[in-house]
Amino acid sequence: xxxxxxxxxxxxxxxxxxxxxxxxxxxxxxxxxxxxxxxxxxxxxxxxxxxxxxxxxxxxxxxxxxxxxxxxxxxxxxxxxxxxxxxxxxxxxxxxxxxxxxxxxxxxxxxxxxxxxxxxxxxxxxxxxxxxxxxxxxxxxxxxxxxxxxxxxxxxxxxxxxxxxxxxxxxxxxxxxxxxxxxxxxxxxxxxxxxxxxxxxxxxxxxxxxxxxxxxxxxxxxxxxxxxxxxxxxxxxxxxxxxxxxxxxxxxxxxxxxxxxxxxxxxxxxxxxxxxxxxxxxxxxxxxxxxxxxxxxxxxxxxxxxxxxxxxxxxxxxxxxxxxxxxxxxxxxxxxxxxxxxxxxxx
Length: 347
Known about the structure:
This protein is of the alpha/beta class.
């Protein structure tokens, strides 16, 4: 488990390695392969090894926007959805029995938020519920709480059209979107859950500043001839104040667990800490680790054994929300995953 303060230091230390193209540690360093995908084959498609083959797994849209092929909305497999719903229901129930509440942060796909710039082949037919809506229904139906970030982002596009929610040439959301998602999640937590009062220090954010963003993780996945035309991008972010909220793992009673969307450059966990006015710790991993891998490793890790949180915020992404623990870096059958959860909670 890595605290926000440690994540910030590691991000600063690892940025040079990431830009140099080295194979970074998938837990702690700034990532090159940050896309979150929807099928087992797409997990392979996002890897650096796949990118080096020259096979394009990203497509150019309109006005300089680039999308991963995994953004394509495909029909949801009912059997897989039911299996994932059950393992999530059982996991949330086990956590609740251990005195731990669960909130989900379901990040919409880039093409869900910006369909107007997406290539036609990625767009879903306009019939029936969207994949995001189905995923949100699954998460809300398994005993946790989850904010509708697709609706939030649609509103933000109307209210602040000049401020991007996702990067044009990267798979991730911007800090503007992540901070808004954190505020919406905190609002739902305050409405639906009763957490014990916290007197511990929390992260405070400064004034919003505009910072350059140079990762462009989708560019290496384009056809070689299209990789040179990349425009500079920036993002608005409220940097955590130095010395005003450096959180140690043993002081945090809220844990954020998830994907590279939770990485410190996007500011979700610090913004959540400020919105909740309580300390928040953070553990995230990149593909091919799944969010089930991250949850299992967190529950079995020393930070959890030392300090159990009152709330876990579990991050999923629309494109992988229906993938269970059997589609992971360490694939486990649902019963095997649940056995590991039970064992960790009983330790």
